[in-house]
Amino acid sequence: EWRVNMVTNYTWRNGPLKDFSLGGSARWQSSSAIGYPLIWQEVLPGTEIMVSDVENPYMGDEEFSFDLSMGYSKRFDKVNWQIQLNLRNLQNINSDEISVLIAQPDGTPAKTRWDPPFQWQITNTFRW
Q1: Phi-psi region for residue 55, left (φ > 0), alpha (ψ -120 to 50) or beta?
Q2: Nearest 5°: CA angle at 49, between 43 and 50?
Q3: DSSP one-letter code for 14
């Protein structure tokens, strides 16, 4: 139902850390419905059908994610060069957790996934 994303980045313009940058991000998502139990519902007098109980869903877990970035930039004549290290999903550095994405009508898992793994990436960018 709810999501919040926050991103920040700071670049030093002078001093001993001139042209270095540090950034981070945080993402949060509230729990969401992953399935519904089945109930009998009367549609006509004496006639019932099985329908999803949308008033009592099975709920998944909240999700939190954290990232960090560090970089350096330099200008060479008309070329701007930047190198950056990006660290994604810091919360999962040593994680081997599995999340349930969809639940069967009896509440057992129907679809699961490994939580997003920790990743690192180095980028070089040239702008002219």
Answers
A1: alpha
A2: 130
A3: S
Q: Could you tell me how far CA 62 lies from the centroid of its own chain?
A: 10
Gap between the terminal Cα atoms of the chain: 43
pLDDT at 94 over 90: no
pLDDT 10s digits, 38-65: 999 998 999 999 999 999 999 999 999 9
Q: Taking a C-beta distance cutoff of 8 angstroms, is the pair 82, 11 a contact?
A: no
Give the burial string for 55-67 (b: 16+ CB within 10 Å, else e).
Answer: eebbebeebebeb
List the Cα angle 41/46/52 in 5-degree steps.
10
User: How big is the CA angle at 125 (ends 124 and 128), to the nearest 5 degrees?
Assistant: 150
What is the spatial distance between Cα 83 and Cα 69, in angstroms, rounded to a whole number?
A: 11
Q: What is the pTM of this model?
A: 0.76
Q: Kindly state the tokens that stand for 82.
A: 């930047």
